[in-house]
Amino acid sequence: MKDNRVTKVLNKMAEQNIDQAIISDPYSIFYLTGHLLHPGERLFALILDRNKNHKLLVNALFPIEEDLGVEKVIFNDTDDSAKVLANALTNGKTIGVDKILPARFLLPIINILNDSKFVDISIIVDKIRMIKDEEEKELMRKASKLNDKACEMLIQKINDKKSEKDVVKDLIAIHEELGVDGFSFDPIIGYGANGANPHGEPGDRYLKEGDAIIVDMGGIKDNYCSDMTRTVFWKQPSEKAKEVFEIVLEAQKRAVSIVKPGVRFCDIDAACRDYITEKGYGEFFTHRTGHHIGLECHEYGDISSVNETPCEPGMIFSIEPGIYLPGEFGVRIEDLVLVTEDGYENLNSLNKELVVVGE
């Protein structure tokens, strides 16, 4: 068990008079135990007990040989998973449940333990995971450094003989070469008008002269995620495209520059959104400015106009403004930033100024 992390959760449980907690999110279980398992439809749960009678419930199909510092409760497919779970919760008057536990397990235990009160504990674990410790910071730096290199290599391979799907294939090969463990999300490669869809899917499109190319990509290394977007151009971009690019770039730089402890996420969002609006493109910036990241690409918390949460040291999140002109093109620029004690550290160092390829 990761004792420091578990203690933080137990302390928050005590503050809210929660006796036991069911943690079923595989990434939160990994965060607290060091063991990552994706169980599919089967039950996998860590029971945290304020009396420290912790248990890890796992199907025999997934043998765990290492000592994780927690009692393992092994069950089989023929066992009643809900009863196994209920039997591990004998001391809980108030039981916390995270957002991942399926109703097929939760509803039966509510019926079995009808004297217990069940509450959502997700926010406790999510907020603790928001603040990265030193080990996590180093892992995030490593993942982002690899993503910088992979993106640089990928951009060098882009040409008008390759479709968007072909570029994704190139990225798979680059990840293999660099030792990246896989995608942290399905990459977005958008040529021209396809880039005007913020989450456009790579297709069979080929480049035309002047096309903007959105490259939004991330990889996993040692279980931690990276995420970055660069927009480049195939041959000479139009004056309008260059203008839009420079507006997005300036907006992104403005938002990054104000990151420090105490600055609210809504103020970071405003730093880029207000500038884009001032330049006449506000209606075409259609999404929040960023999201938190770590074990998962999208973790709890966002950088949006309605989030008044202040930055704290150890938080890592994206800053990724964009302008999307339907039927024409899109531009998005994204870095990951780490909040430090007195400012920020940009985890991405790859050039984000205007780049033209194919000349």
TrEMBL record:
Listed InterPro entries: Creatin/AminoP/Spt16_N, Creatinase/aminopeptidase-like, Creatinase_N, Pept_M24, Peptidase_M24B
Residue ranges of domain Peptidase M24 in the record: 138-341
Domain Creatinase N-terminal: 5-131
Alphabetized Gene3D superfamilies for the sequence: Creatinase/methionine aminopeptidase superfamily, Creatinase/prolidase N-terminal domain
Coiled-coil annotated residue ranges, if any: none
Pfam family, one: Creatinase_N
GO molecular function, one term: aminopeptidase activity
Keywords per UniProt: Aminopeptidase, Hydrolase, Protease
Protein name per UniProt: Aminopeptidase P family protein
Source organism of the structure: Gemelliphila palaticanis
